[in-house]
């Protein structure tokens, strides 16, 4: 027993002696270790009195943690989440409005009307496929190709309930149906056909990449930066197609958490990661597409310029989405999921 | 002071701690489900998806109990009663599944038995099949994983029971002419009932609230724990609270049922038990048993081997081959070049030790009181100690986050959210029933008259504790304490809700690596975690041996 207590003491001592005199600024972010480390180093060099500590987690997790910590906020900056999550956080009063110096460089749909959050990166949704298993010529070119019966049992997607990306795609399909016919029926019919072609709904993106790479399913829908990262930075054999008829263009944003204990440092970090240089660095090294409109196109990497010329943003009414998306997803979950004939 | 009075005085602080840490936060969750009157409950009742989820959760829980018993009980007998070549090795690896952190264990299964897994593809190649012979999904897949990870509870409890078991009773029955079957039915099984029931209950509760397996294999499957996640994601907190309450109610129903089954029988032993194993003499039987043992060993070790293999595999190149085609030390190099490598490890170890130390003290006192004393609050204490089982980890975490978010002495609130201490508290709560029931089942096999006898012979209360009660409780204390520490070190579900940067545990580091697509590094980290758990098990064993 005595030895156990000794270990407890040791553990406590170790966990206690980790702070120095710098101001600790806590950043919640899904952007991944490499990007976060890159900005951490740069920022700490410019601000030697600040110690950036980031916690890397999914954007949905960030929302849930910020929500849970509302009475005693731990985070200062929330860097990265689709607009839908930020809109929710805004509604729940979790964010601290801040107007960045570059506010004018963002389209109105790329920001919150009362400065609760601003867009940083753009994430177009794409169709991706395993390039070992599917020839480029055979790959689906547009959303409607996905419901062709030839893909029966070959599509693998993330569980749409848990994924902001999939919610955006499903929402766009439904919004298209409303815009064309005024009714949701055609959209539900489309989703029913997709369900019939879907082999599996995966709850976790990493496992989905793995299954796609290992040909458990050969076609998926996902966001372009992630697929481009897989294509360029890993050996997983994937490729993507930008849907011909248009694609939902999601905005990924940044915000200061309401109740942040270091608002001044938080604002400095906010500004630091959104300068034009930072945007270009993120595009070059981490395959992010900047949301700021004032960045000279010539300075962006070639693949982004190519992609941007092909992308036709799908007009998505954010009001309609906010009002109906939950209802559509609920209907899908209860009445469509797994109802299609599986092989 | 009368004995009843004295019991109550000892029990009060324990009851107070449990009321504060377990009941208080969860009352908040239940209150939350009624925030809209009966509105959220009506929504739940009207949802076919939720009804299906409830049904599936219960089916999975019951199937997991039977599967775990089917594996755990025979294995405990095999190892506890017989001696044959390979027994020591089998004994050594029997508890290995507990050393796989929940999320990693599930992913190892995916790599082994998934549609593109090693075993699946090997079978497919061997039989020349055009398609994978099976798919790892649905209820079957989840029960399969549960049987592997949860049979350990059954095995440990039943083994501890067998250890206290007096072989002379069996011999006596045999001498009186009872057949083997008769002996098993009338002597052995009744005496093991507390252990079997206790561990079955544990499996039931764990399977009911299980998150990792449905999270990975779930796909189209609906269970309550993933429904809660979905509701939370959709921002429907009210509905999430209802789903959490329903899950808790199903667990309470199971709890009542098991307790009732358990209460019907009471057998105790007056002796300290003996450890006799039958040495298998027949050459043929020896071979059969050793072969069976070898097969079981392989099955038990495979997931660990898979994790080790992946930790050396180059990420991304393993596509359609049976085994990863390229190997590298890169994953480990990356791991050890990380400046913050040891932080999550020291965090997890110190938090697990703090939680377990608390568990051992509180649960020993509670189990002693429940088994040997009769006093006004006994029923309440019994209920409180098993209550955390009835509450899924997500709900425990949600309740803690809601309750301990500010300092308010009047309402007994302390600011713990965002501090180091919230996770040890969560681990303590989660493991309380585990440790208590292990100690209880050890103590139940001791005859209550032994304590009176010691006191009657003039031993002081302290001496009686030290020389009679503690030794009787020891197998349970060690088994329960070890399991608690191991669970806490790899804990995932509550941690993911409550951790902060100051107490970031190992499971969160593994999750971050998985998020970054670094399966190899995640596997390397898991290998470290498995080594850590083995180290703890070794420490516990040497501790046990020194005491004997």
Task: Provide key terms for this protein.
heterodimer, A: 343 residues, alpha/beta, D-Maltodextrin-Binding Protein, domain 2, nine-stranded mixed sheet, two-stranded parallel sheet, 12 helices, B: 548 residues, mainly alpha, MetI-like fold, 2 domains, two-stranded parallel ribbon, 23 helices, 2 strands
Description:
The complex is a heterodimer of chains A (343) and B (548). Chain A is of the alpha/beta class and 343 residues long. Chain A folds into two domains: 21-121 and 251-305, Periplasmic binding protein-like II (D-Maltodextrin-Binding Protein, domain 2); 123-248 and 312-335, 3-Layer(aba) Sandwich (D-Maltodextrin-Binding Protein, domain 2). In chain A, 43% of the residues lie in helices and 19% in strands. In chain A, strands 1, 2, 3, 4, 5, 8, 9, 10 and 11 form a nine-stranded mixed β-sheet that branches. In chain A, strands 6-7 form a two-stranded parallel ribbon. Chain A is globular. Mean pLDDT of chain A is 87; it is low at 13-18. Chain B has two domains: 1-33 and 313-320 and 328-548, MetI-like (MetI-like fold), CATH 1.10.3720; 43-294, MetI-like (MetI-like fold). Chain B is built from 23 helices and two strands. A two-stranded parallel sheet of chain B has the order 1-2. In chain B, helix 4 packs across helix 13 (283-312), helix 7 (138-163) runs antiparallel to helix 20 (461-490) and helix 14 packs across helix 23 (519-547). Chain B is globular. The mean pLDDT of chain B is 83. The interface between A and B is large, with 62 and 61 residues.
CATH class of the largest domain in chain B: Mainly Alpha
> Which CATH-level-2 architecture of the largest domain in chain A?
3-Layer(aba) Sandwich
* Portion in strands of chain B: under 5%
Poorly predicted regions of chain B: none
CATH class of the largest domain in chain A: Alpha Beta
Query: Can you give the helix content of chain B as a percent range?
Result: over 70%
Q: Whole-number average pLDDT of chain A? A: 87
Number of helical segments with 4 or more residues of chain B: 23
Outline the low-pLDDT stretches of chain A: 13-18
What's the number of structural domains of chain A?
A: 2
Beta-strand fraction estimate of chain A: 15-25%
């Amino acid at each position: 027993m005595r030895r156990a207590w000794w270990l407890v003491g040791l553990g406590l001592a170790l966990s206690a002696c980790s702070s120095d005199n710098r101001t600790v600024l806590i950043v919640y972010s899904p952007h991944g270790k490499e990007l976060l480390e890159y900005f951490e180093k740069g920022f700490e060099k410019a601000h030697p009195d600040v110690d950036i500590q980031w916690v890397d987690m999914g954007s949905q997790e960030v929302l849930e943690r910020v929500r849970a910590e509302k009475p005693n906020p731990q985070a200062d900056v929330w860097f990265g989440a689709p607009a839908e999550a930020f809109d929710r956080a805004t509604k729940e009063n979790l964010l601290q409005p801040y107007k960045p110096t570059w506010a004018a460089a963002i389209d109105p749909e790329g920001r919150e009307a009362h400065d609760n959050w601003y867009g940083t990166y753009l994430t177009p949704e794409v169709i991706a496929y395993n390039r070992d298993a599917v020839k480029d010529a055979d790959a689906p070119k547009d959303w409607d190709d996905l419901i062709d019966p030839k893909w029966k049992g070959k599509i693998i997607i993330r569980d749409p309930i848990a994924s902001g990306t999939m919610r955006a795609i499903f929402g766009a399909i439904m919004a298209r149906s409303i815009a064309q016919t005024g009714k949701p029926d055609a959209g539900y019919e489309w989703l029913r056909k997709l369900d019939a072609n879907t082999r599996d709904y995966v709850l976790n993106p990493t496992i989905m990449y793995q299954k796609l790479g290992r040909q458990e399913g050969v076609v998926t829908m996902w966001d372009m930066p992630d697929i481009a990262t897989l294509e360029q930075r890993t050996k997983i054999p994937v490729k993507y197609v930008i849907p011909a008829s248009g694609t939902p263009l999601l905005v990924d944003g940044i915000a200061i958490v309401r109740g942040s204990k270091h608002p001044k440092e938080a604002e400095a970090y906010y500004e630091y990661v959104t300068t034009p240089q930072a945007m270009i660095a993120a595009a070059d090294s981490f395959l992010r597409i900047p949301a700021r409109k004032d960045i000279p196109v010539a300075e962006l990497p070639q693949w982004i310029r190519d992609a941007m010329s092909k992308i036709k943003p799908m007009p998505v009414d954010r009001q309609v989405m906010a009002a109906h998306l939950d209802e559509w997803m609920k209907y899908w979950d209860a009445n469509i999921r797994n109802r299609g004939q599986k092989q | 002071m009368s004995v009843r009075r004295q019991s109550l005085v000892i029990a009060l602080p324990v009851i107070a701690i449990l009321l504060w840490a377990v009941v208080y936060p969860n009352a908040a969750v239940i209150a939350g489900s009624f925030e809209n009157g009966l509105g959220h409950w009506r929504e739940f009742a009207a949802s076919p998806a939720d009804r299906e989820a409830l049904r599936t959760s219960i089916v999975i829980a019951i199937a997991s109990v039977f599967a775990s018993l089917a594996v755990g009980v025979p294995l405990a007998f095999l190892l506890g009663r017989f001696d044959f070549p390979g027994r020591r090795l089998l004994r050594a690896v029997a508890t290995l599944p507990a050393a796989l952190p929940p999320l990693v264990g599930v992913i190892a299964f995916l790599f082994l038995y998934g549609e593109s897994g090693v075993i699946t593809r090997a079978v497919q190649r061997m039989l020349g099949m055009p398609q994978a012979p099976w798919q790892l999904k649905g209820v079957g897949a989840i029960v399969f994983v549960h049987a592997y990870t949860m049979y350990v509870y059954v095995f440990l409890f039943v083994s501890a029971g067998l250890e206290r078991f007096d072989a002379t009773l069996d011999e006596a029955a045999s001498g009186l002419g009872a057949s083997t079957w008769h002996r098993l039915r009338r002597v052995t099984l009744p005496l093991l009932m507390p252990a079997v029931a206790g561990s079955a209950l544990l499996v039931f509760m764990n399977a009911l609230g299980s998150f990792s397996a449905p999270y990975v294999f779930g796909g189209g499957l609906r269970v309550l724990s993933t429904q809660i996640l979905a509701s939370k994601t959709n921002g429907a907190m009210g509905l999430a609270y209802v789903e959490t309450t329903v899950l808790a109610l199903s667990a309470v129903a199971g709890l009542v049922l098991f307790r009732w089954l358990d209460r019907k029988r009471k057998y105790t032993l007056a002796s300290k038990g003996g450890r006799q194993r039958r040495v298998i003499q027949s050459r043929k039987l020896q071979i059969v048993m050793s072969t069976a043992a070898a097969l079981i060993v392989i099955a038990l070790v495979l997931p660990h081997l898979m994790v080790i293999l992946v930790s050396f595999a180059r990420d991304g190149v393993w596509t359609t081959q049976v085994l990863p085609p390229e190997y590298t030390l890169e994953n480990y190099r990356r791991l050890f070049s990380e400046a913050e490598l040891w932080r999550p490890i020291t965090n997890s170890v110190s938090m697990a030790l703090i939680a377990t130390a608390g568990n051992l003290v509180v649960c020993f006192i509670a189990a002693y009181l429940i088994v040997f004393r009769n006093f006004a609050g006994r029923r309440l204490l019994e209920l409180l100690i098993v209550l955390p089982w009835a509450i899924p980890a997500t709900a425990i975490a949600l309740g803690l986050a809601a309750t301990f978010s500010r300092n308010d002495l009047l309402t007994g609130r302390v600011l713990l959210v965002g501090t180091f201490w919230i996770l040890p508290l969560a681990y303590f709560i989660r493991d309380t029933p585990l440790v208590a029931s292990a100690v209880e089942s050890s103590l139940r096999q001791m005859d209550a008259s032994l304590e009176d006898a010691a006191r009657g012979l003039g031993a002081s209360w302290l001496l009686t504790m030290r020389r009679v009660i503690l030794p009787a409780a020891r197998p349970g204390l060690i088994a329960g304490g070890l399991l608690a520490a191991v669970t806490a070190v790899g804990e995932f579900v509550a941690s993911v809700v409550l951790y902060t940067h100051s107490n970031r545990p190992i499971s969160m580091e593994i999750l971050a690596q998985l998020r970054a697509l670094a399966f190899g590094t995640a596997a390397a980290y898991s290998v470290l975690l498995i080594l850590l758990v083995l180290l703890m098990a070794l420490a516990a064993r040497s501790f046990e041996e020194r005491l004997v």
